[in-house]
Amino acid sequence: MAAFTRLTYHQRVHNNLLSSLTGPAAARPRTFATTRIRMSLQESAPSLAVVGVTGAVGQEFLSVLSDRDFPYCSIKMLASKRSAGKHITFQGRDYVVEELTPDAFQGVDIALFSAGGSISKEFGPIAVGKGSIVVDNSSAFRMDENVPLVIPEVNPEAMSGIKVGKGKGALIANPNCSTIICLMAATPLHQHAKVVRMVVSTYQAASGAGAAAMEELVLQTREVLEGKPPTCNIFNQQYAFNLFSHNAPVLSNGYNEEEMKLVNETRKIWNNNDVKVTATCIRVPVMRAHAESVNLQFEKPLDEERAKDILKNAPGVVVIDDRAANRFPTPLEVSNKDDVAVGRIRRDVSQDGDTGLDIFVCGDQIRKGAALNAVQIAEMLL
Amino acid sequence: MAAFTRLTYHQRVHNNLLSSLTGPAAARPRTFATTRIRMSLQESAPSLAVVGVTGAVGQEFLSVLSDRDFPYCSIKMLASKRSAGKHITFQGRDYVVEELTPDAFQGVDIALFSAGGSISKEFGPIAVGKGSIVVDNSSAFRMDENVPLVIPEVNPEAMSGIKVGKGKGALIANPNCSTIICLMAATPLHQHAKVVRMVVSTYQAASGAGAAAMEELVLQTREVLEGKPPTCNIFNQQYAFNLFSHNAPVLSNGYNEEEMKLVNETRKIWNNNDVKVTATCIRVPVMRAHAESVNLQFEKPLDEERAKDILKNAPGVVVIDDRAANRFPTPLEVSNKDDVAVGRIRRDVSQDGDTGLDIFVCGDQIRKGAALNAVQIAEMLL
């Protein structure tokens, strides 16, 4: 029953750190002002599988599916052998977690994967071979030219033609969380004035490294407050009251993999190999939402008032930009919310005229940065 | 005895959060590899005053003066009426805190101010009138064209001619902490390749808002871990496990004052009105050291290996840049240290050739960002 213990603890972390501070989860809107696709359960609805269901994103897949009334006729809860046999309650029904095997995808229309790159590499093609459409949250296939990399609000056209019910499997990749959150805000501006260069610095939450990292941050914080040495199992250094360069491996060009995802995925999603991007990715002691400081250089002029209007009207985006009250987006405020929040929208004083803007973006890493985006992709398959 | 309680608590915070994690303070080197000016006590040494001695920076003034064997024949401990009468032990002697009055500067050669801008504006000119040389840590006089704004390693020439013993008072301004930490790393590169544009995103510690803010971060963190609502006295929102746009007032151009300090002070310190700077300043739940992600655009090519060499040889700078071990500067590592640490030194892939670099800088906000820099300025007066 270890997974239950873990999930319960995870839940408690949420209750303590997030829900109790922003109101009880049930009463708290998941979104600021969103347009949801509401569907009732249908007999002809697709059969689903959630791969990596016991992880932080896996659990959020279930939460989002439920919140959005995603239609399904059946749902398989898949995880590693270690988690098989555990019980999960979903929409009032008890499910037993099944071991992920090649046979598990028999009859599955849509499989939501979030079990790490190696699992996706091994089982993604198997699922496709069985006719499943795989929405993969790992980085395994993101840069594969045959696999669409999709943010539904940004480039839905990339997956046109892929539909449930055609009897044909397919792979669709969910972008990296930092890329999704950045491009939710940058794309509407890009569509108006064309971004030529983007300098991004991130403030990334523990959740990006999984539920165990969130737990370690809580544990370390308690230890440090008690004057004890911090337990460092997930990261190789103290995280509580500290920050550090993202833990992704550093490549030969000095960028870490997380940073190069922002560089390369932006080009693929915007279908524009000319856009210049640099990024510095930093892990900060925040629980589950990322923040990003984004400096934009445009081809065409775009003044800050127009930019605010564009962002206010952008799908999945909310503008929080009250200069008098010094109220701007924070990770805590967007935690457990669907929309990405943008603020600090201002003309960049280091660029000439109106060709540059600075913005600050926050988005829930587990939700829009992972599970929600994947479920939105799945909604487009129907 | 309220101040003693506060200082004791402050000390406890340090012990718990910093010292116990990086070794006891006595055993911990204050610097990575620094060149200190060591002076023995002299009869002819200057008389000192510390204004705002009970604050976080005031306390650090004393610590730095002691660590660096700063010569003095006498030292006045000055603070508000509220703190007057309290006792401070310094270098084995008991001092009574005196109320800050115009007469307090009689016979004072060097006055180190850190009591906020309004105190500096009121008492700085009075002290100068009495013949004191004021090293002011507030923003009151930084942009005054008659007042040098000095980082000793960067622009010592700006204060040439100001010396103790000439019987003439003077004002010297200590730059903003974020500016000092940024320019400690950027200047050596600027001297080689000329920075034309700089995009800075900061990760600023609680200490920049004073000892009470550090205490509130600890208190809030305890409260949040216990599931209680956080006490928000210093900031208007939750700080524990969160981050937010810097609390400085936002100006009409959308930048906050902290950001414009980086823009304007850089120009003054570099004596170069053409350098283009933009900054986004963010408060993160870290105790006492700032981090900054700095994107640099140069006039002349500067490759990353040369940049590393330059930084390794720069005074007051230490390079921490181990890509294989993913080891780079962290705020915790530089806490209570003199040197500014630089890492993540890499060619910016968004710029052509070798005309761009990304770097990540960490520095102790209270020490090099405030007290140490001021004491170094004072050393140059002797």
Give the gist of this structure:
Chains A, B: Pathway: Amino-acid biosynthesis; L-threonine biosynthesis; L-threonine from L-aspartate: step 2/5; Amino-acid biosynthesis; L-methionine biosynthesis via de novo pathway; L-homoserine from L-aspartate: step 2/3. Chain A is an alpha/beta fold and 382 residues long.
SSE layout and pairings?
Two copies of one chain form a homodimer.
Chain A: H1 2-22, E1 47-51, H2 56-67, E2 74-79, E3 87-90, E4 93-96, E5 98-99, E6 110-113, H3 117-129, E7 133-136, E8 170-173, H4 177-193, E9 195-204, H5 211-225, E10 244-245, H6 257-270, E11 276-283, E12 289-298, H7 304-312, E13 317-319, H8 331-334, E14 340-347, E15 356-364, H9 367-380
Parallel strand pairs in A: 1-2, 1-6, 2-5, 6-7, 7-8, 9-11, 13-14
Antiparallel strand pairs in A: 3-4, 9-12, 10-11, 12-15, 14-15
Helix pairs in contact in A: 2-9, 4-6, 4-9
Pathway (chains A, B): Amino-acid biosynthesis; L-threonine biosynthesis; L-threonine from L-aspartate: step 2/5; Amino-acid biosynthesis; L-methionine biosynthesis via de novo pathway; L-homoserine from L-aspartate: step 2/3
Subunit structure (chains A, B): Homodimer.
Active site (chains A, B): 177 (acyl-thioester intermediate), 290 (proton acceptor)
